[in-house]
Amino acid sequence: MYRRLLINIYQVRNGLIHTQNTRLPSTKCKERESLASAIWAPCTARPLGTSSIFFNENKESSTSQLEDKGKKPEENEANAEINTAEQKKTEVNEGTKKSNAALTSQLETEPVVKPEDSNQVEKSKSGKENLLELLGAMKVEVTTVRKIRPSKTPRMSERPDQEPMESAHSMFQHAAAEGSQQHGTLNPALAAAVSAAASTLPNKHQAESELLKQLRKHEAVPDTKRRADGQNLGHIIADMKVGRQANGRSNARPTSQIRFDDDGKGYTQDRGIIGELDGVRRRKSPFTSKRLNIFTAGVEQDALSHLGPTLWDIDLANQIVQTTNQMPRNGFEEMIQWTKEGKLWQYPINNEAGLEEEASVPFHEHVFLEKHLDESFPRQGPVRHFMELVITGLAKNHHLTVQQKKEHIDWFRDYFQQKDDVLKEAEA
Amino acid sequence: MASSCSQALRHHVCKSNRILRVYLQKSWPNRSFVLSSAADQPAVSSPEEIVIPRKKTWSKEAVLQALASTVNRDPTASDYRLQDDPYLTPKTSSEFKLFSLSQESGKNAAKYFINTYPKYFQKDYAQPHIPCLMPETLEAQIEEVSEAALIERIQMRKVKAAVDLYDQLLQAGTSVSLDVTNQLLDLICFYGDSDPAQENVPEQRNEETEDIQDEPQAKKGRAPKANDLLKATWKENNNAERIFALLSEPNPHSYSALIRGMVKYGAYSKAFSIYTDLLNNRLKADVHTFNALITAAPEVKEKYNEKWELIVDLLKQMAEQKVKPNLLTLNTVLKALRRCGTLGKSQAFPVISEMKALSIEPSLASYNHLLAIFYKPGAPIQGQTDILQEVMNEVSGKSFTPQDPDDAQFFITALRICLDTKDMEQAYRVHELLGVGENWRLLGNDFQQNIYHARFFSLLCMMENIDVVLKWYRDLVPSVYYPSSNVMRDLLQALDTDNRLDLIPQIWKDIKQLGHGNRQKLVEELLTLMAREKHNQEVQESLAECALDIKKMYDAGDRGKVMLSWTATSLSDLTSVLLAAQRRQDAWEMLKLFKAHNRVPSEELLNKFLTCIKDSGDVDQAVELVQITAGFCLPETPKLIQRVQQEFELSEQQKNILSDLELQTFNSD
Description:
Chain A: It comes from Cirrhinus molitorella. Chain A: Belongs to the mitochondrion-specific ribosomal protein mS31 family. The complex is a heterodimer. By secondary structure, chain A is mainly alpha-helical. Chain A has 22 helices and no strands. In chain A, 19% of the residues are buried. Chain B has 30 helices and no strands. Chain B has helices at residues 2-45, 62-68, 93-116, 147-155, 159-171, 178-190, 218-231, 239-246, 252-264, 268-280, 287-300, 304-320, 327-337, 342-357, 364-374, 385-395, 410-421, 424-434, 446-463, 466-476, 485-497, 504-513, 520-532, 537-555, 568-580, 584-596, 603-616, 619-631, 637-647, 652-668. Chains A and B meet through helix 17 and helix 18 of A and helix 2, helix 6, helix 9, helix 12 and helix 14 of B.
């Protein structure tokens, strides 16, 4: 649709559009005529004048290095003008249309005319929408031209969509110089248009020849140059658009841009549409896209000798802890933290927490300690008596482990053995 | 204050009580069901057999976790760690900073003393013993030259001492085992061949605290780290390289240590040459080595495609050597892709798919890198909102555990994008994600929390209507977030757009409490908003009260601080607010301030004033007003004189004064 429209616009600019009228149904034709006359009735000289200006502009730009396509962005502002120019043309070429009828049947096809048609009707309805549509069309062109740029400055990313863009580009050229290819120098339609334009001027023949000369010059521009200019144009357009899309590499979305232009709120409100399409999108979520295919799943890692966490692992854990929020949010969480640090008695409450080494020791080992007195203590006497008191005390002491109790008794054993002679002296 | 506290507390208790009850109600029917099913079962199989349920071992935190899950955040209470002392509970962001810093430094000081003088802290009261409360041993215990001593020094992270000891051991002809040497290499490479800064020595913290509040950038958080790296670089032929060269048969671990050290301290190309060395020795690298090399890859190549090719090459070598990548590999690759320009966009998703195929679940850091690839800060956003949406579709409702130091960046990155694209819907989704499971831990430290909330709140102010904004405002401020003066201005703008200027007195109270009462710009904006429109009597009255309060703020030069200075606009705004509330006497006081501060009132204000005076019919004051006006030599004086002459009934004397004034001004013209 956009391309069709675009082709149409080009044809307008090349003076071919006047042929359209012949294809229109008579009612449409009348409607347009009435519209045009309503606008341009007051003075007939003026539309003619503007149309010639229009031609001039065409020529000037063709001689300038930009080529007339370069004018495009400028004319974004003056889009309405193009439209009115179209209408003017139709009026101007009213007289010549019959002679061109045969030619147009070659050049024009029905569908091409139709969008233009609707365009015109729409214009009568709301100029703004029409302008918007045209802007959309411009945008399409902008993006395609831009995409050609990388072919000049090659980047490493592969671009599968290179080919259609090329074709689009060549299509523009084709459209621009459609007729000229058949004839050696000039398209008869163009020539006819020139003569029509010239007929309005006082010095008819001179004007016609001048116009034709200019047009030939235009045609002489070699194809290759044109291509280069097209790229040049791309640069210029890209520069012009910098404000809106500095990151020219990603694909622009014309629809959203039009909306952007339209409501001017500074942000796009396409959330609704995206929401609707959510289901569709989810199916082709980028997270399920193709993979790199470097690794094969299920391959087990070679068992590397692992000697516990290395310094690096500890540091990684430390870094993670530091970047995350470890602050407790309530008392219970603080207690969890304390539990982890080992500062808090553990839940569920266990009386024997921290006594793991004693867990396997039966209670009689704690209580019946007489067996430790047998070997080296005297069987009776004050020492024996003393030691019995000691083990009674130890039996009741829950703070000491069995091992410590044994050590306690051993200490006394050593002590009494050292003092053996003293004891014997005193009592014997 | 105290009453509100107690009220809050009661409310809190009530709430948790209710929750607990709900819990119990929920669990009772369950339990009875279990009982009945347990009773049924034996009846079916065999009536005699009694099935004794297996003893369940609870983890030590299970009870506490269950209890903690019953407590919700109370938006009227301050943060838990600030609740110790109501008097000290911070009310402004600077107080909060001071509080948390002093808390932290107090802990550090205590630790420092315990570790420096361990002999005074030997008494062990705790039963069972609590190791973390005992002083750490910082001095090496083993004096002789042996491998055990070397291991001890490695564990105590004494780089210099360990290297010296290693040399002594070699000189003495003792061979050191490869494992210990590798540990030593790890130690040297980790600290870049210099002793680590003592953790317990109170060091000068870099003051990144200056203005956390004013539109902070993520850059600041990273700055100190970058400094550390710059400070220490890999030195040519340092001890690590020397010891490595002494090894007769280095194993992959030795290579790994060396390469990781080199990458950490910026010797990137050297790391690659060591890697080539490793390949020449027909050894296999481990996953950490590859991770380090991938980190280094963007540093050694210039062009985007070369960087990426190198990374792909490394990944292929991993596959060849049958090394299984881990989550950190994925994150490192994505992080490297951030520096590969457009290639990042095309390759990021294939990388993630690859890792998913290897059943590596991306962490928040992966998503953070992904977002950073697609949304460059500062670049215009165009048509990529869907990437954030895709990511949110992917992560929504999941609970994440911290696995990567970059995990904590996700939330602020996501919200930055929401703010850039003005996407409220996604912002709500991000905020929702924050509430899932333990995700709140991944919001990061106070600094990052502040950024997050500032972004969230300014987005709210921009996109939502005032009721919603205020709902969030009551929820977040000040229990989790102390807004900066900029954010308060956003809030004022939101009030303005929704025409709820009657709420200004309330907001002013908050502004004062948040310590922004002395921000000139904010206060002036507030005054302008107050003066701009006429309201009904009641609102006007409250605005006038508020205005007088603001005036006090200007007057308060206590403690030697002059905070605000009067400007012509602030003076006239304040005066006109007072006039609108028919507070002629207060307004008259204000008019005197013009003179005192060398400001000139506007014609409009004077006319307003005159109208107000006329309503009350105070002729004397009208004349006085004209005299004051004449004192300012305003060009409007004649007009005012005219008005007074026409609209008031003047006594003879007053008429004389006026005509004198008229003459004066005429002459001066």
